[in-house]
Amino acid sequence: MATITKKELIDRIADKTNSKRVVVKRILQSFLDEIIEELGHGNRLEFRDFGVFESRLRAARVAQNPKTLERVPVAAKRTVKFKVGRLMKARLQADERPARSYDGQRSRPGQSLGPA
After folding, report:
1. N or C, where is the chain less crowded by C-beta within 10 Å?
2. What is the pLDDT of residues 11-30, one digit of tens each?
3. DSSP 106
4. Could you tell me the fold of the domain covering 44-87?
5. Mind listing the pLDDT tens digit for each residue in 54-80?
6. Which residues contact 107 (CB under 8 A, 6 or more apart)?
7. Taking Cα atoms as reference points, which of 22, 47, 23 lies closest to residue 34?
């Protein structure tokens, strides 16, 4: 699994569209800035077949420090939830392939990959 950076995406889009890299960078950054702005206002962003971004309020809670076992209050905070759209879900599921064991056999659900 690889990590793709914004720079790599900009380069790909510039190549595919025969556009200047600086123009693509400005457009992509403007797009990301708008997403942040809208989520900051509490708005929902829906991109058909891609997915939905929503700003959610996480309730205040009491957590526990695992080292000291001390109970610590955690304040309420806003977070972003992303719900996968139809086309992305289909693509992700199409890419799911059963793992191969070390002897080259495909594993089945519930089947161990190690020796029996």
Report:
1. N
2. 999 999 999 999 999 999 99
3. B
4. HU Protein; Chain A (4.10.520)
5. 999 999 999 999 999 999 999 999 999
6. 98, 99, 100, 101, 113
7. 47
